[in-house]
Each structure stands twice: as structure tokens, then as C-alpha cells.
Specification:
- There is one protein chain.
- A hairpin with a 6-residue loop joins strand 6 and strand 7.
- By secondary structure, the chain is α+β, with helices and mostly antiparallel strands.
- It has a seven-stranded mixed beta sheet with strand order 1-9-4-3-2-8-10. Strands 5-6-7 form a three-stranded antiparallel beta sheet.
- The protein contains four helices and ten strands.
- It binds zinc ion.
């Protein structure tokens, strides 16, 4: 399953939370990239999912904080993408389950839900080329209500 390259203008944000591994029950971190400036979306705040390629500096920023976010093979999409994996058992928690259903970790449906997420800006001073799906639902509420950190 291939996707074309999308050029995104800065800033980018990293949203994070803690979830429970569906296989071993460990608590594990999960992250998602928020992109408010995607050309052609008329100002929609997008959330990247099933990200297949990322610039090295962006990847390094994320993996320094969340080493278990890594390029992994997904049986669901039969391809590799940057996925949240369990530090204990290694299984992937797929973006489909983290992003797609209202009430999922990266699909908050209220300000209160969104406040469970933490948000940091990913340093980037020039346009960022990614290969990813663009979610157009809950980005705005995440940007407004997630806890801002460093
Ligand atoms: Zn696990």
C-alpha cells in the first residue's frame, strides 16, 4: 500500500499518551504527529497515521523520547510504517485502532479526553516531506486541549 509524498509546513507537534498493550497488558507509550499546516486542506489540523517515511531529524526527535515508535511491519496494511510498539513484548498497536474510532486515544471527542494527551512541538524550520495518511477529524481539539510540555 503506497502513498505519495506530502509536503507539510511547520510547525509539527507530537502528541503522546499511555495505553495498555493489547497483547501483554503492559502500560506503554503511544504517539502521533499533528500537522496544522498541510497545504490544500484549508487550515484543517491533520493527524498523521500509518506514516511510512519521515525526515531523519523528525524521526530522531521522536525516537529519542519514544524509542518504541519505530518502523514496523503491519499485517493489517501489509506494509511497514512508524508504529507504536510495546517495549515489553514488541507487538505493534496499530494506528487504525489508535486513530479511527471516536474515543480512541488519538480521537478524543471532548476537551476532557484531549487533556489526557501531552503535546510538544517538534523542531522544524523548513517544509517536511512525509508519506502518511492524513486524519482530518480530531486534530483541532487535540491542539487546543492537550497538555503543552517541552
Ligand atoms: Zn506488550
Amino acid at each position: 500500500m503506497g502513498r505519495g509524498m506530502t509536503r507539510i509546513d511547520p510547525p509539527l507537534y507530537l502528541a503522546s499518551t499511555t495505553i495498555t498493550c493489547w497483547r501483554c497488558g503492559s502500560r506503554m507509550p503511544a504517539v502521533a504527529i499533528i500537522a496544522p499546516n498541510v497545504p490544500g486542506t484549508e487550515g484543517t489540523v491533520c493527524i498523521l497515521s500509518e506514516t511510512q517515511s519521515l525526515p531523519g531529524n523528525i524521526r530522531a526527535f521522536i525516537q529519542k523520547r519514544f524509542p518504541s515508535y519505530k518502523l514496523s511491519y503491519s499485517k493489517t496494511i501489509r506494509s511497514k510504517y512508524y508504529a507504536n510498539t510495546c517495549p515489553r513484548c514488541g507487538v505493534l498497536s496499530g494506528d487504525f485502532f489508535l486513530h479511527s474510532e471516536p474515543g480512541a486515544p488519538f480521537f478524543p471527542i471532548s476537551a476532557e479526553d484531549a487533556a489526557h494527551l501531552s503535546l510538544v512541538e517538534i523542531p522544524a524550520d523548513s517544509p517536511i516531506d512525509v508519506q502518511a495518511g492524513l486524519g482530518m477529524g480530531p486534530g483541532e481539539i487535540i491542539l487546543q486541549h492537550a497538555r503543552k510540555g517541552k
